[in-house]
Amino acid sequence: xxxxxxxxxxxxxxxxxxxxxxxxxxxxxxxxxxxxxxxxxxxxxxxxxxxxxxxxxxxxxxxxxxxxxxxxxxxxxxxxxxxxxxxxxxxxxxxxxxxxxxxxxxxxxxxxxxxxxxxxxxxxxxxxxxxxxxxxxxxxxxxxxxxxxxxxxxxxxxxxxxxxxxxxxxxxxxxxxxxxxxxxxxxxxxxxxxx
Length: 195
Description:
The chain is α/β, with parallel strands linked by helices.
């Protein structure tokens, strides 16, 4: 394994960009919990897991206050990769067909992995493929940019048609229909003899 590639929407984070109302914004955790406006004795809303951002006490939401969160498995995998990169040459890429690329780039700057590193710093900036093109074309571009053989690439995606398309190239693919889990990452490491 030399290149780990992630889809964004519903693989690294939730909800998908087409599901949110307007561009993402940062709000204070207290505002999200409702502490500033709360007049009743009702319990404040809990912060969802994976809501951490580079800004202390702030989370990313849409206009309606829907939180945008990183899946635990993706957060864990990116932190593990950050640690592994100290001892081995391992690159990280994005292959996405998200509806709102500018929103995705903003979220990659704000949202953090388990080790506190912004997603944008976990990913090689020249290896971000966001377009409506079939994902196999995005992988052909990644192959040209990196010189890494398809058989040395790993791909995590929630959409089965993307898994099938990219898998035909020889890439080892992992279907993550409910977002990336720690088990998906552990299975990948095991299959590559890296656990």
